[in-house]
Amino acid sequence: MALLEIRNVTRRFGSYTAVDNVTVTIEAGEFFTLLGPSGCGKTTLLRMIAGFDLPDSGQILLDGKDVVGTPPEKRPVHTVFQTYALFPHMTVADNIAFPLKMAGKALPEIKARVSEALDGVRLSDFRGRFPHELSGGQKQRVALARGLVNRPRLLLLDEPLGALDAKLREEMQIELINLQKEVGITFVFVTHAQNEALALSHRIAVMNRGSVEQIDEPSKIYGFPENRFVADFVGKISMMSARVLESTPSHLKLEVSGLGEVVTVGKEGVKAGDNGLVAIRPEQVRISHASDEPQLKNHFLGKVHDFLYVGDVTTYIVELSNGAYIEALLPNSAPGRAKFYDVGDAVAVSWRHDAGIFLHE
């Protein structure tokens, strides 16, 4: 039996449907992420799991029992908010002890559990400090320790890393992964940051306009998006309109207007005559001098329209002969600014026959 089952849950605010007939199953011990743009319904769904909001229809089952109508404090669930919600007048230890005191635990048990929680987030030396004396990352860890101290079946995390700077955010991602492995508690994580979701999760539910577009493991979400929204929202991708000329289990032969024939990997449910999009990730596209001999099946000429240097890589935006743009990524392995091509340079782009994917519109 799954730990958490969300069955056909809908939540409306007046005429606006925030969550639209969503069904999701989450296993015990999973790091599960709800990913989507602002306003897609992910936080509303999290609030309903926590008990802060009620669905208009549907069921939320925890260990097989419907908890709709059960107040938040009676659910074996804890929520960590982006603001951390620490009590400013309480020390770190007292903040962590608070849920245990509310639950009426005995003092010796409270002391033991608080010490264990502090060790778990490596803050034993900070037990007597107050929130204003802590850095953002330390506050984050206190909030996590408080969330874990009463050993909930489920820990809900609502954009918990959103307020951190990029470097600290990366460090905290690693800490979160390790912490989740150590404690073995199921995490349900809400974020709009695609890279964060890909790095942290066992599985991801991509949400859009109140509905779930795709649920899968990160590599499948990124490598095999099921539709245009998922492909476009998760990572960078180039897309061109295409018509299917030939469909076999191993490959698809596509016609791209003004460009010619493109070959991609085979896909179930696609037949000759279908219209849609050919989509390709920048890291799968090879860029070379226009005069170089073609090495790959998909090989097209163009010119550099623009480029973006971001330190470790440079992304080249290439305009093809049909006026479409395609992005190609080059690692900057040499020291200094590695600029291989300039705006206006004639180049070739190519990719393997099994790199691109076909998407129905």
Observed structural traits:
globular, six-stranded mixed sheet, 2 domains, five-stranded antiparallel sheet, OB fold (Dihydrolipoamide Acetyltransferase, E2P), 23% helix, 361 residues, 8 helices
Description of the molecule:
The strands form 4 sheets. A 6-stranded mixed beta sheet has the order 6-7-8-3-9-10, with helices on both faces. It has 361 residues and is an alpha+beta fold. The protein is built from 8 helices and 20 strands. It folds into 2 domains: 226 residues, P-loop containing nucleotide triphosphate hydrolases (Rossmann fold, 3-Layer(aba) Sandwich); 125 residues, OB fold (Dihydrolipoamide Acetyltransferase, E2P). The mean pLDDT is 91.
- Sheet-strand content, in percent, reads 35-45%
- Indicate the percent of residues in helices: 10-25%
Corresponding CATH superfamily of the largest domain: P-loop containing nucleotide triphosphate hydrolases
* Structural domain count: 2
What's the pLDDT, averaged over the residues? 91
